[in-house]
Amino acid sequence: MVLFTALALLLLVSHALESSSADADANDTRGTPEPANLSSRIRILFPINDSVNALPLRFNCEIPVTTNSDFMRAHGDDLFCIEVNRSWRQCEPVATSRPLLRDLPAGNYSATVYLASSDLTSVLHNFAARQAIRSTWGLERALDRLGIKLLFVGCTPVFHNTDADKREALERAIEREKREFRDLFTHELACTDSYATLPDKVKQFFHYAATAHATIPYVMVADDDIYLQVAELARALREHGPRSRFYAGQVWTKQFLAHMLPNRDPDSKNFVSEGQYPMRFLPPFAFGPHFLLSMDCVEYIAENRDVLGNLSSLDDVSVALWLLALQSNASMCRGFDHASWLRGD
């Protein structure tokens, strides 16, 4: 699940012609796996130190190894990372890494290279998805220009059938990722990371958003397997300006002109018993992979998080039920069904 907050709506465009690099800092081991000395011995062969280069800029690096086969057995699943000016980073699998920088503002840069443990790819089973977002539509510098803050919410991880050593390794990997990217929430939120507790995850994140970013106009919830056109989203929100009691997304009831029925199959993960929800139809709701709320709606849910009930594991339907008290009904936005952008019906 990806949750992010729109802070402001500003568009800035820049491009780069100049870039310089430095050898890897042997004392900088942030994110470096064991053994740390291997990362510290990786050398950047190109670009040459203090050189001026045009984009796109491809990196050539040298990793001292005994044999290729031994190295790949030990590190074949690891990530090869380049960090520029201690703020921007790109990580790719060692076996397929072709480090290439395409978009940097003109200026002077210092680059550090290191290997990141393959444990990272197992964190909550979603590191690859988070990394794909960070390097595409969730690129930090691009979101900064649009005034969008991206956060990944995992709550406290639950380890099933995991021995102590593996659990400790995963916990270290989680903390390493949090230090490296500063965008992942786990134990900071009062929830556990499971499908059954998705509504609690949303409530706890809304509490964080309403507390830490109270002045923002909108909060969006999105899954980590979507591709979001953030520039179009920012443009549409800027055109409409701040709104109150705004709750929108892909509303199947309106899109397909048909009522949505509760799932009465007890073997389904989306099972809703008649005792829990006796109504024949579900309320119109913005479909779970992506929905958008104004801050007043977020604040209402945050303030009442301890008394609002969850409808099974259905976070999207739960949100619709919670907002009935505000008479805030889900609006269909065609942009979320891949047609146009935020042209509310």
Write the SSE topology:
Layout: E1 2-6, H1 36-40, E2 43-46, E3 57-58, E4 60-62, H2 68-75, E5 79-84, E6 88-93, E7 100-101, E8 111-116, H3 127-135, H4 140-146, E9 148-153, E10 156-157, H5 164-181, E11 184-185, E12 192-193, H6 198-212, E13 218-222, H7 230-240, E14 247-251, H8 252-255, E15 286-294, H9 295-303, H10 315-322, E16 331-332
Parallel strand pairs: 9-11, 10-12, 14-16
Antiparallel strand pairs: 1-9, 1-13, 2-4, 3-7, 5-6, 5-8, 13-15, 14-15
Describe the fold and architecture.
By secondary structure, the chain is of the alpha+beta class. The protein folds into two domains: 7-16 and 121-339, Spore Coat Polysaccharide Biosynthesis Protein SpsA, Chain A (Alpha-Beta Complex), CATH 3.90.550; 43-76 and 79-116. The chain is 27% helix and 19% strand. It has helices at 36-40, 68-75, 127-135, 140-146, 164-181, 198-212, 230-240, 252-255, 295-303, 315-322, and strands spanning 2-6, 43-46, 57-58, 60-62, 79-84, 88-93, 100-101, 111-116, 148-153, 156-157, 184-185, 192-193, 218-222, 247-251, 286-294, 331-332. Strand 5 and strand 6 (88-93) form a beta hairpin.
